[in-house]
Specification:
The protein is an all-alpha fold. It contains seven helices and no strands. Helix 2 runs antiparallel to helix 3.
Length: 212
Amino acid sequence: MTSLTDIQNTAFMAIGPSRIAALSLLALVQAPESADSSSAGDVLALSVQRISAAHDMLSSGLDTLLAECSYALPAELEAKRRACLEMLGPLHRAVTAADGTALAHVRAVPDLAALCLYRLEPAVSAFLKDMVQTLHQAQQLREEERDAQMRATITHAEGVGKNIKFISFNASIEAARIGDMGKGFAVIATEIRELSGKTQSLLEEMSSYLKH
């Protein structure tokens, strides 16, 4: 089963590179006309891929992954996610333009330098930092609750096992009282008592693993 830690790592890998992609796009539009076009093309393609992956994760991917774990971001962190998505929007629309002139559309983004350097990068970094901390703590809490539930279940099962052992012991006594007619029942009662003892030992061993 996917954990919140797994989701945290997946989201980080999808969203984090958008910061480098934004700076790369800024560098491309500021580069002189004589720059190596083949190299620039590779950088542009990678930047487009990273911007698109981050936008997809921020817009719906993260919500979908979290929903599968029955978890939703706290209100403050959700607001930061929406802010990152809004800031990433102009770049995403530019690089996914249908006419194939992504760089020209990027160049036309208003206040491109300010967006890439002073708005998008700090916002994404702050969101990722808080997301990692929040999901890590939430996963730890879930694991602690799960362990507590397992210990409670084992404790209950231990109690049931003791009662079965006590009942089988009493059954052996009653079988002995009725003589030969109770021999078959006595054998069954003994087997139940032995099985109960083995089960009890197994439960105690499981409980000791959880306590360490």
